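A.,

Following up on our hallway conversation. Structure tokens first:
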């Protein structure tokens, strides 16, 4: 077979970034580091240094995934478009205090370079066995230190998930996963979905403060636009250049806002979709007296995302309204220009008619003048002939010659005018 050069790489893409199996008890610490430079970021220096100390091959500059096991810790690094994920799996988990600071947190602190990014998401996922006597809500409240929990049975009720969606003293969100009848691979997938749901939720929420700022700018732009549209009907012609300048400036402002917000709002829509997808993949069912994770997000996260979406819609509508107002003003200016052109053409026609009449007048005067001088020349000829002895009266002969001279001059000028007209027509 003549394979495409990227066939193997594309085929094996489904096997990249595997989800490590997780068995209880275990604690997973995760950090997501946001980078302002989204492209061509080098491999993390501290991760490379850590690999060198432990005799591991660090990820190269073109790599986007790294996975290694060192003792009781397993580290996983992933590169995404805007952020890097660091996840450490630790089997050193105290079932009585699963969310206390541990060796996984120490490793993350060692790997994170505060000069090359900002933490956007941090969470701990504690995976505990249900035990012979099962696991109840009171136990979950005790371990999480909160009486305001949300949770659900997940994975077809083979596990349970609890959280209060608050940050602890170390700045970590906390999720408690209770293993009732899952295998390690199934629990690993559940852990990954919980992590991704929280990370994508935070990435989506980055658009919320920007949307509020954009809404304030849009409020001002929409007020200015309403005022400009109201002036379109009543403004005199002298204000049209000013109106066009104001509309052009407003259009530039809205386009600038749109260009600034396009990526963030589009990314929020994509992250929102991923949050919904990961929530659906957990296959949640209700636990007594608790909101499910999806219900909690629907009441708090979804309104923020809907607000971002509404700002995007307002921005697109404002851009269209400015375009329509600019079109109306251009139509008005073009109509006025056409009216001026018609008036100018009518004036040119009047001037052409006047020039024609003037030309006819001048032509008549020219015939008279040329005839006068021609008659004078002819009289000299007659005088010369009389001096030579010919029986000619010079005065009488000159008088008789006036009529044919005038007729000849008039015909000659008329023929010359016709030749000029024909030559202009050919050009």
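Then the amino acids I'd put at each of the 427 positions:
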């Amino acid at each position: 077979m003549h394979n495409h050069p990227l066939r193997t790489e594309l085929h094996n893409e489904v096997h990249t970034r595997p989800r490590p199996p997780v068995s209880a008890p275990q604690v997973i610490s995760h950090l997501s580091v946001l980078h302002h430079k989204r492209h061509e970021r080098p491999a993390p220096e501290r991760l490379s240094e850590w690999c060198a100390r432990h005799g591991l091959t660090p990820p190269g500059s073109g790599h986007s995934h790294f996975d290694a096991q060192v003792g009781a810790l397993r580290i996983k690094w992933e590169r995404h478009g805007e952020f890097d994920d660091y996840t450490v799996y630790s089997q050193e988990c105290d079932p009585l205090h699963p969310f206390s600071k541990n060796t996984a947190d120490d490793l993350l602190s060692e790997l994170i370079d505060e000069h090359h990014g900002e933490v956007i998401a941090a969470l701990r996922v504690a995976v505990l066995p249900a035990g012979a006597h099962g696991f109840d809500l009171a136990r979950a409240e005790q371990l999480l230190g909160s009486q305001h929990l949300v949770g659900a049975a997940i994975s077809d009720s083979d596990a349970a998930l609890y959280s209060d969606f608050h940050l602890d003293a170390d700045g970590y969100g906390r999720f408690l996963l209770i293993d009732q009848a899952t295998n390690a691979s199934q629990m690993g997938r559940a852990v990954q979905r919980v992590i991704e749901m929280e990370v994508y939720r935070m990435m989506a929420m980055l658009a919320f403060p920007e949307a509020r700022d954009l809404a304030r700018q849009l409020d001002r732009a929409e007020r200015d636009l309403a005022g400009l549209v109201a002036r379109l009907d009543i403004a005199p012609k002298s204000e049209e250049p000013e109106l066009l300048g104001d509309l052009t400036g407003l259009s530039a402002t809205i386009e600038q806002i749109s260009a600034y917000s396009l990526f963030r709002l589009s990314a929020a829509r994509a992250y929102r979709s991923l949050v919904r997808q990961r929530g659906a993949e957990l296959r949640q069912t209700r636990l007594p007296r608790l909101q499910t994770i999806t219900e909690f997000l629907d009441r708090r996260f979804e309104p923020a995302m809907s607000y971002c979406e509404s700002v995007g819609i307002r921005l697109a509508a404002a851009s269209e309204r400015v375009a329509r107002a600019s079109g109306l003003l251009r139509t008005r200016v073009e109509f006025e220009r056409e009216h001026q052109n018609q008036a100018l053409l009518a004036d040119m026609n009047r001037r052409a008619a006047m020039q024609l009449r003037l030309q006819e007048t001048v032509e008549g005067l020219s015939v008279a003048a040329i005839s006068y001088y021609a008659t004078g020349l002819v009289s000299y000829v007659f005088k010369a002939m009389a001096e030579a002895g010919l029986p000619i009266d010079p005065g009488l002969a000159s008088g008789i010659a006036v009529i044919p001279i005038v007729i000849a001059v008039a015909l000659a000028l008329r023929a010359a005018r016709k030749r000029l007209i024909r030559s202009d027509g050919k050009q």
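Strands lie at 26-34, 65-70, 73-79, 83-90, 118-129, 150-154, 159-167, 173-179, 285-286. Curious whether your intuition agrees with the design.

B.
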